[in-house]
Every structure is written in structure tokens, then in C-alpha cells.
Design a protein that fits this description.
This protein is an alpha/beta fold. Helices cover about 30% and strands about 20% of the residues. The strands form 3 sheets. The protein has a 10-stranded mixed β-sheet with strand order 5-4-6-7-1-8-14-13-9-10, sandwiched between helices. A two-stranded antiparallel sheet has the order 2-3. A two-stranded antiparallel sheet has the order 11-12. Strand 13 and strand 14 form a beta hairpin. The two termini are about 25 Å apart. Keywords: Acyltransferase, Fatty acid biosynthesis, Fatty acid metabolism, Lipid biosynthesis, Lipid metabolism, Transferase.
């Protein structure tokens, strides 16, 4: 039987509400910086939620020519910028690699929502004549992110976008992992992006009562595990990884950040928006990832949780962790970096994978900020890394992503 190839991370990229590059992102993470503030992208004064985690001081024309950028929705722009940073970071010699064996597998939960919204608003203001931008469809469709990355660099391997709500990026990372370890490709650009700070997104999520309404204090609105959490905070941006066959990476003398050792999937099979009340789907996803990695629960040092700051989701994920890890759950560090970045929806797993890798590299666990009051529904015996980063030995990190529809995906990275 043919054995699986080892898969390693040789490049990372990040475009986030707390930093537009990997070094800036890490600086924000370790210092517990909140990326949340009042919305600037549209007039939100009449909305119940008037804040979000937007990108700061981002000018796409510094990375992509204006004419090209106009043909991309913002979620694709973000994908291209983060992927470019990861490719440069990887040190790949693009002139001398086999581009037939390089794939692009990306994740986005929504795709070009802003493009769709703008075109429909423009149409609604007219006389009913369908004057639609010829780039409307190519900008809107979710696979334009992977398509543009592929075209930009000439990568001719597998090319598609996974859509599984807020587990989309983890889904993409696991798919890329599988293509490489099966020997189908040598390298894959993977990750995820979202640009959902829009009228339709903020309006839709607030209509569901899913988002925080802490308008008087937005910087502390994302409060995972806090008694007074009242919903998630939407974020935007992208994260990118270069995954590579270990032997291929060694042969070219690449630096290696970490090894990706396992990926797990499950479905809650319970409700279209609410998590399973016992956290069963979360438990199955984590167990599947551990089994895939061939490691025991006791080997995990840190869990970057899904931790969105919702009343239902936070305690149920922690319950799943305790049920699966037993007493070891109290020896690990756990944190939700969404307390700083907000929730990037389909792109969340990508920036959280980057955060997990950086935590191992620096042996520092990023904090769960904005914790003020213990919640009796949360197991507060767990080390939730509250309000301040903690130094510790980190050899194995597990990162969760869960989405509407009951989609669950878990990735595990190991220090190498």
C-alpha cells in the first residue's frame, strides 16, 4: 500500500483587521489588540449593529493595478494579496517549478456579496432596464478567488473554492492537504478570504440576532466565554498558506514553519444555524482530526477555538473539548483569536491557521481578550488564556472551524 506523503507549511500570508502583513498580525495577536471599531464602509447609523472588524489603511492599488482590481470583488482582492505574501515568504522559484503540480484551493463562505449588492442597488435605482456590469458574474462567484490566484501565477493544478460557511477555509486546507499527501500535486496555495462588511451582510446577520449590538463599546464587543457576550462581530480579510510535499520542500532548501498532520470533518445534522446542544459535531470533527493525525489527545498543547462570542456556540465547543480530552483539557491552553480579529466567516480558519502556526513558532499562546465576567455556563477551570498572551511549550496545535448548516472542520499542525 502506498504511504501518504508528509505535508508541511513553507509560506504564510495574512491580511487582517489587526495587521495587513504576517508580522503586523502577530504583533496584534500577542499584544491583545482589538480590531473592532465603527463601520466606515457604509452608513450604518440606522442599523442595530454599527461596528465591525474592518481592514485598516489598506490600499489595494499598492498590490494590484487599479484596472485589474476593479474586475475583482474585495474578497478576491484580499485573497490575491494574502496569497502573494505567502508565495514570496515561501521562497518558491516560480520560474523553475513544475506549475502543473501546483494547485490553488481556497475557501470563502459567501464570495462576492458586495458586488451582488452594488449591482442590485444600482438596478433598483433605475427604470428597470437591466444595465448590468459585464464583470458582475466573474466578480461575484466564489471561485474567482482561486481562479485569479492561479491565473496570476500560472498554477495549473487543481483549482477551486470550498464553500461550507464558516468552516470553508479549514475545508480548503484539508482538501489541499489531501491532494499533496496523495502525491497528486507538490504544492498548494490554500487559505480563505471574506469581504462581508456590507449592508446585506450586517443587515442579514443582525436580523437573525446573531451579531453583537454593543454599539457603546465596540472594541470590547467580541467577548468569547464572557457572561455578557451577545453575539459575534463580523470581520474581513484573508489568510494564506503554502502547503508543500515535505521531500519537495527539503530538496529546494525551504524553511518549514510546521507540519500539517491531520484534518477532520463532521456534520452536526441538527439545525441550519444553531450548534448541536451537546457539542457532538464539534467532538466528532476533533476526534476525526486526531485519528487522521495518528496522535493521542494528550499530545495537543493548544486549541485555537471557533469561539465566536455567541451565547450558544462558545460553551458547547468547550463541552466538546472536555468530553473528548478529559483531564488533559485542563492542561492545555485554549483561546479564541476572534476576540481580536472578529469573525471572518469563510476566511476565519485561514487566519486562525496562521495564528496557530505563529503560536508554535514563537511559543506564545495569543489571548482571548475582552473577558470581564465569568459565565456559569462555561467551564472556567479551563485555561482560556484570558486577556493576556501566555508563554508555554507548544508542539501541537488544533484549530476548529464550524459553520451554519452544521459543517465542522478541524486541522492539526505540529512543530517540526
Amino acid at each position: 500500500m502506498k504511504s501518504f506523503k508528509r505535508v508541511v507549511v513553507t509560506g504564510i500570508g495574512a491580511l487582517t483587521p489587526i495587521g495587513n502583513t504576517v508580522p503586523e498580525f502577530w504583533d496584534g495577536l500577542k499584544n491583545g489588540v482589538s480590531g473592532c471599531d465603527n463601520i466606515t464602509k457604509f452608513d450604518a447609523s440606522k442599523f442595530r449593529t454599527r461596528f465591525a472588524c474592518e481592514l485598516k489603511n489598506f490600499d489595494v492599488t499598492k498590490f494590484i493595478p487599479r484596472q485589474d482590481a476593479r474586475r475583482m470583488d474585495q474578497f478576491t482582492q484580499y485573497a490575491v494579496v494574502a496569497a502573494d505574501e505567502a508565495i514570496v515568504d515561501s521562497g518558491l522559484d516560480l520560474e523553475n517549478i513544475d506549475k502543473n503540480k501546483v494547485g490553488v484551493i481556497w475557501g470563502s463562505g459567501i464570495g462576492g456579496l458586495k458586488t451582488f449588492e452594488e449591482e442590485m442597488i444600482y438596478f433598483g435605482k433605475g427604470d428597470g432596464t437591466p444595465k448590468i456590469n459585464p464583470f458582475f458574474i466573474p466578480k461575484m462567484i466564489a471561485d474567482s478567488a482561486s481562479g485569479n490566484i492561479s491565473i496570476r501565477h500560472g498554477f495549473r493544478g487543481p483549482n477551486y473554492v470550498t464553500v461550507s460557511a464558516c468552516s470553508s477555509a479549514n475545508n480548503a486546507i484539508i482538501d489541499a492537504f489531501n491532494y499533496i499527501r496523495l502525491g497528486r500535486i507538490n504544492i498548494c496555495v490554500t487559505g480563505g478570504s471574506e469581504a462581508a462588511v456590507t449592508i446585506a451582510s450586517v443587515g442579514g446577520f443582525t436580523a437573525m440576532r446573531a451579531m453583537s449590538e454593543r454599539n457603546d463599546d465596540p472594541k470590547t464587543a467580541s467577548r468569547p466565554y464572557d457572561k455578557d457576550r451577545d453575539g459575534f462581530v463580523v470581520g474581513e480579510g484573508a489568510g494564506a498558506l503554502i502547503l508543500e510535499d515535505y521531500d519537495h520542500a527539503i530538496a529546494r532548501g525551504a524553511k518549514i514553519y510546521a507540519e500539517l498532520i491531520g484534518g477532520g470533518f463532521s456534520s452536526d445534522a441538527y439545525h441550519i444555524t444553531a450548534p448541536h446542544p451537546e457539542g457532538y459535531g464539534a467532538l466528532l470533527s476533533m476526534k476525526d482530526a486526531l485519528d487522521d493525525a495518528g496522535i493521542q489527545p494528550e499530545e495537543v498543547d493548544y486549541i485555537n477555538t471557533h469561539g465566536t462570542s455567541t451565547p450558544l456556540g462558545d460553551p458547547q465547543e468547550l463541552k466538546a473539548i472536555v468530553d473528548l480530552f478529559g483531564e488533559h483539557a485542563y492542561k492545555m491552553n485554549i483561546s479564541s483569536t476572534k476576540s481580536m480579529t472578529g469573525h471572518l466567516l469563510g476566511g476565519a480558519g485561514a487566519i486562525e491557521a496562521v495564528a496557530s502556526i505563529l503560536a508554535m513558532q514563537h511559543q506564545i499562546v495569543p489571548p482571548t481578550i475582552n473577558h470581564f465576567t465569568e459565565d456559569p455556563e462555561v467551564d472556567n477551570r479551563l485555561n482560556l488564556t484570558l486577556n493576556k498572551a501566555q508563554e508555554r511549550k507548544i508542539d501541537v496545535v488544533l484549530s476548529n472551524g464550524f459553520g451554519f448548516g452544521g459543517h465542522n472542520a478541524t486541522v492539526i499542525f505540529k512543530k517540526i
